[in-house]
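[SOLVED] Need 3D model of a four-part complex

Original post:
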Amino acid sequence: MSSWIVTNLWLIPALPFAASLVILSLSNVRRKSAAALAVIGQLLALAFSILAFLPTLQTHGFRVVQNFNWFTFGEQTLRLGFILDPLAAAMLMMIALVGLCIFVFSVGYMAEDRNFVRFFAYLSFFSGAMLGLVIANSLVLLFIFWELVGLASYLLIGFWIERPSAAAAAKKAFVTTRIGDMGFFLGMLWLYNRSGTLLFYDGGNGCLESAGLAMLGASPAVAGFIALLIFCGAAGKSGQFPLHVWLPDAMEGPTPVSALIHAATMVAAGVFLVARVYPLFSLGAINGVTPSLTVVVWIGVTTALMAALIAVAQADIKRILAYSTVSQLGLMMVSLGVGGVAAGIMHLLAHGFFKALLFLGSGSVIHGCHGEHDIRKMGGLRRPMPVTFVTYAIGMMALSGVPFFFSGGWTKEEILHATAHWPRSHATYYLMLAGVVLTALYMTRQIIYVFFGNSRSASERVHESPRVMTTPLIVLAICAIFFSVLLTPAWPWLHTYLTGESAQFELVRLIQPMFFVSLVLVGAGIGFGIWMYRNAGAPERNRPAEIDPLEYAQPALFRFLANKMWIDELYNRTVVAFSWMAAHLSDWMDRYFWDGLVRGFGAIGQLFAIFTTSVDERGINAGVDETTAGARSLGRVMSTAHSGQIQTYLGVVAIGMLALLLLYAWLA
Amino acid sequence: MVGLITAIIFVPLLGALAVCTWPQKNGRPIALMFNVISAACALGLWWKFDTAATELQFVERHEWIPAINAEYLVGVDGLSLLLVLLTSLIIPFAFLARPLPGGRGFYATMLVMQSALYGTFTAQNFVLWFLFYEMSLIPAFLLIKIWGGENRDRAATKFFLYTFFGSVGMLLSFLGIYFAKGTFDFTTLASLGKHGLLTGRLAWLAFAGIFVGLAVKVPLFPFHTWLPDAYQTAPTGVSMVLTGVLSKMGVYGFVRLLIPLFPNQIKIVGPWLLVLAVCSIVFAPLAAWAQRDLKRMVAYLSINHLGYCMLGLFAVAASPVVAAEIDMHAALSGVFMQIFNHGITAAALFYFVGLLEQRSGSRRSVDDFGGLMQRTPLLCGWMSVAMFSSLGLPGLNGFIGEFLIFKGSFAVAAAFTAIAVIGLLITAIVFARAMQSLFSGPLAESCSAFPDLLRKEKLVVVPVTLLMFVIGIAPQFMFNIFNTTVVQMSRLLS
Amino acid sequence: MTPTLQIFLIVSGALFSIGLLAALSRRHAIFILIGIEMMLAAANLNFIAFWRFGPQHQPPTGVMIAIFSIAIAAAEAAVGLAMVIAVYRHYHTTNVDQLDQLRG
Amino acid sequence: MNSAAFIIIAILTLGAALAAATLQKLMHAALSFAGAFVGVAALFFLLGAEFVGLVLVFIYIGAVAVLIVFTILLTRRDVGKDRGFNWSGVAIAVAVFSGLTWSILKTQSLSIIAPHIRALTVKRVGEALMTSYVWPLQCVGLLLTAALIGALVLVMEEKR
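Solution:
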C-alpha cells in the first residue's frame, strides 16, 4: 500500500495542480465548489503525504528515488526525478498540514472577496508547486518548481490587483527573487557542466553522491562558487540580506497568503535548498568549515540581527511578523552554515507551524479590526477575541523561544548549541544570543500593543472570528506545542530521523546548559519588553499616546529602524536608478548612436550617389530615410525625358536599336 | 507527380491568385482555406518524415539553369521541417490577428510571402534559396509600406534598404564562392567548408558579406535599428510574421550557410561575435524597458530572444575549444527549440498587443491602459501566459530552449553566458513592469468599456497557449523532429 | 544577274525605315499604325528571304513564322484601330501630340 | 529568279510605301499602303512563298486596309486639322536605314544566290501547321479571338 505511493510520488503535487486547473475553469460565482475542490485537493495531498511518510519511518536513512527521462536532445538525455527521504517526507508533512489549515482559514477570511474562486486556484497552484519542490530529485526539477512557487507568490501578492501598492510589491518580489534565481540558474549550469548530471541521487552517479562529488572535488574552489551561486537563489527566496527587501512588502497580499507563502513554506524553500545540496557546500570541509558555509553564516547572522532590529520599530502587525520571518530564516541559515543541518530543518518545520499560527492570528485580528494593520490603533483585544489571543500568545512564546513547552524553544536551543561550537568564530554565537533577546522584545511589544491596554480607535466593535477561522488557529497552536515532543533532547526523534540515526530515550539530557542560557535570555527579552511597553499606547509623563516608548527614548535610532535602515531608499538611489539609467541609455544609444551610425553610412553612400548622378545637394546631411528622397529627385530629373509622347519613346527605341546594331557590327 | 515540398511552396501562390480573383471584398476565408491546405501538407511532411534518417528527405531535383549549375533542389531535414511547421502555424495565426487591414491585396501579399518562406526553408541550393529569400523581402516591404501605421514610409524604406543591402553583400559573396568552387549546392559546399572554401582576403570578404546579410535579417546588434521601427508600424499580423518567421530566416541562414561554410573564419572572430550576441541579449531588453509603446517593447524583446539563438550558435561554432558532445547537442537543440518557441510566443504577444490596440482605438502606449485585470480578466490571464513564456518561466515553452542554450554555451563561453543571464533578468523586469502598468491598479477610464476576450478570439488564443504548455511540459515530440539533424550538425562542426 | 540575299535584305531594311519614318514623323495615329504594319511586313520579308536562301528544313520554319507573324499583325491592327476609335471618342482627336497620359 | 522583275517590284513597293508614309491626305495614304502590300506579296511570290504572299494579300488588302478606311471614315471630323511633320523622325529613319545597309553590306556571307528548292506547296504548309505547329496555331487562334473581343469592347459605346 505505502510502497505504491513511493513509486508514484508525482501524485502529491499533481492533485493540488489538478484542483487548481479545475478551479480556474470555474466561473466566478461557484464559490463553494472552488473552496471544496481546493480543500479536497489539499486533503488528498496530506493523505498521500502521510502515506509517503510512513515507509520512511521503518528504515533509518530511507531514500527512494525514481528518475525518468524528460527529453532527449541530440543523443543526450535530460533526466528528472522524484525523491523520498526523511527531509522530503518531513517537509511534505509540514507543508500539507499547514497548507490545509490555511486553506480552511481562507474560506472564512476571504469570504467577502470578489475573486474568491481565483484565490483558491492560485493557492492550490502554489501548494502543488511547493509540494513538488520538496520531492524534486533533480536541480532542474527543483528549479522549475522553484520558479512556479515564485510565480504563485507573485500572483498572490498582487492578488488585490486594484491596489497599486500590491502590484508594486508583487513586481518587487518577482524581480528581487529573480535576481537571486539568476545566480541559482548559473550555479545550476556550472554544476551541470562539471558533474554532467543534475540528478541529486542516481544510484551512485548523482551530483550529490560520491561520483559526482569526486568530479567536483578536483577543484574545491569551483564547488564553493557553485554552492554560493545556488545560495544566491536561496537568499533571494528566503529573504536573506541583501535581497530581503521584497519580503516585508509582500505583506500586501491577503493574510493567508502571507501565512502560507511568506512565512511557513515558500520562504523556507531557500533553507530547504541549502539543506538539499548541503554536500556541495560542505565539500572539502575542514572541521566542518568551508568558505561557502562561512559566507552562509555571515549572511545569516546579518539578516537575523538586522531584521530583528527593524522589527522592533515597525507599526504594521504583519510587517513585524514579516521581519521576524526574515530574522528567523537568517537564524536557520546560520544553523546550516555552522553545520547544524538537522537543527536548521527542525527549526524550519517548527517555524512553519508557529509562524503560520501567528500570521493567521494576525489575520484574525485584522479581520476583527475591519482591515486595520496598525498595532498602535489596536489594544485590549484579549477580551473580545479570546481564542485569537490565546493561540497568538502560544505562537508568540514559541517564536520567542520560551523553553520547555514550545517547539520553537527546543529548536532554538539546538541552533544556539550548534553555533556555540562553530570553530571559526564565537562572535556569531553572541550575536545570535542578542537576536534571541530582540525576538522576545519585539514580540512582547506587539502583543502588548495589540491585546493589552485600552481599546483604541480600530478596536471598537471588534468581534471574534468565525469558527472556520479559529479552528485552524487551534490546530496550529496544538501543533506548535506538541511538536516539541519530537524535539526534546531527551528523545531527539526528529533530529535522528533527519540524520538517519535511531533515537534513544534519555531523560538526563533534558537539562542542558543551553536550557538555562535560553531561559535567561528569553526572560530578559520579555521582561525588558514588559517594562518598556507597559504603558504603550497610553500617555505617560511627557510622552503623548501615539509616540512609541522607544521612539521617545531614542528618536534617532527609532527613525533609523522604522525606516528599515533606509535600505529600500539606498537601492532606489543606486541599483534601481542605475538600471533605469542604463535602460534609457540603451534606448538613447539605439535611437541616436547606432541608428546615427547607420545613417552615417547611408550618408556616405548618398554622397557617392550624388557624385555619380549629379543630383542636387539638398540631402547631404540626412540619412537612410533621405536616400529615398534623393532617389525621388533623381527620378524627377529623369522623368522630364518622359514626355508621354509615344513617338518620342519609339524614336528612342529606334536610336537604341541602331546603337546596338552598330555595336554589334563593330564587334564583329 | 508533384512532390510534397513543391506542393507546399505553390499552394500559397495559388492561394494568392485565388484571393485576387475572388469576387468578394474580404479575402480572409479563402486565404485561410489555402492555409489549411498548406498546413495539411506540412503535417503530411511531418507524418512521413523519418526522424532517424541522416540525409535530406523528400528531395526533388530538376534541371533549372544548367549554365550556372543551378538546380531546382528542395528537401527537408529536421531544421527545415521545424521551420516549415512554424510557418504553417504562424501565417494563419497572423491572419486571425486584429486590427486587420482589409482588402484582398493584403491577403494575397501575405500568401506570396508565405510561399517565399516555405521556399527559403526548403531550398538546398543557393540560387534557389536566394530567390526565395529575396521574394520574401518584397511582400514584407509592401506590407509595411501600404498597410503600416504611422511613419510607415520611413520604416518600410529603412527595412528595405537594410535588408536589401545585406542581400547584395550576400549575393556577391556567393558569386565569389561560385567562381572559386563552381557549385551552389548547400550540402556540397558544407562538406567543402571544413577545409576552407576560399583563402586569404577573398575568404574574409565573402564571410563579411554573408555575415552582414544574415545579421541584418536576424537582427544582431548593432544591425538591428530597422527592427523596432518596422515592427512598430507594421500591422499586427505582419509584425507577427516578421518576428515569428522572417527573423528565423536569418538564424536559419547562420545555421545552414555561415557556420558550415566558414568554420575557420568564425573561430578567429568568435569572441567578437559572442560580444555582439551578448550585446543583443543585454542592451535590447534594457531598451525595451525604456519603451512606452507596447509593440516597440515586444520588438526589442524579440531582438533579445534571437540573441539567445545567436549566443548558442556562436558559442558552439566560434569557441576556440571544441565543445563536448553534450554541450554541442544542448546548444544546437536549444537554438532550434528557441527558434520555434520564440516564433509562437512573440507572435502571440503581438497578437495580444493587437487586441489591446483594437479595443483602445489604436492606442498602445503602456500609459493608455491600467487596471485591465478588473475589466478583462481572461484577456489579461492569457496574455500573461504569453508574457511568462517569453520571460522563460519553467513549465512553458520558453524555458526549454533557453535552458539548453545556456547549458551548451556555458561550457565553452562561461563568461559570456554569465553576462547573458542578465538578459533573462531584465526581460523579467520589463514584463513585470508591463503587467503592473497594464493589468493592475485602478481601472483606467479609457479602458472601462473594453470587452473581454471574445469567443472567436478565444478560439485563436487557446490552441496557441496550449501548445506553449505542451512544449513546456512534454517537449519530446519537438525534439524528435530535429534530434538527428542536431547530431549530424555537431559532427560537422567538431 | 540574279538578286542575292543582300538585295532582299536591303529592300527589307528600306521598307522598315520607311515604316519607322511613318511611325515617328506623322502625327495622326493611323499613320503610326500604318508605319508599324510596314515594319512588320519588312520583318516578314526578312524571314521569307532567309528561308529561301538558307538551308532547307522540314518544316519550313521561316515561312511558318511569317504566317504567324501576319496573323498577330492582323490582330494588332484590329486592336490598334479600335483603340484609335476609342481614343477619338474620348479626346476628340487622333493627334498623338495631344495624348500624353504616359507622362512621368 | 528574274532580276528585272525584282527591280520593278522593289521600286514599286518602296515607292508606294514612301507615299503611304508621306502623303498628306489620309485616304491616299491608305491606298498607297495597300499598294505597298501588294508589292510585298509580289516579292513573296518571287521568293517562292506563294502561299504566304496570298495570305498577305487577303489579310492586308482584304481586311486591314478596309479597316483603316473604315477608321478614317469614323474619325473623319478630325481629318482637316493641321498636322505638321516631325523632321527628327526622318533623321532617325535615315540613320537606321544607313546603319542597316552598312551592316548588311559589310556582312560578306549574305551575298549568296538562291539555291534550287522543292516547291513549297500549300499541302506542305498545311501539314506543318497541323503537326509541329499545332500548339502555336491554337494559341494564335485564341489570340485572334481575344483580339476580336478586345477590339469590340474598345469600340463599344460607353454606357451612360
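Edit: Chain D touches chain C through 89 residues (CB under 8 Å).
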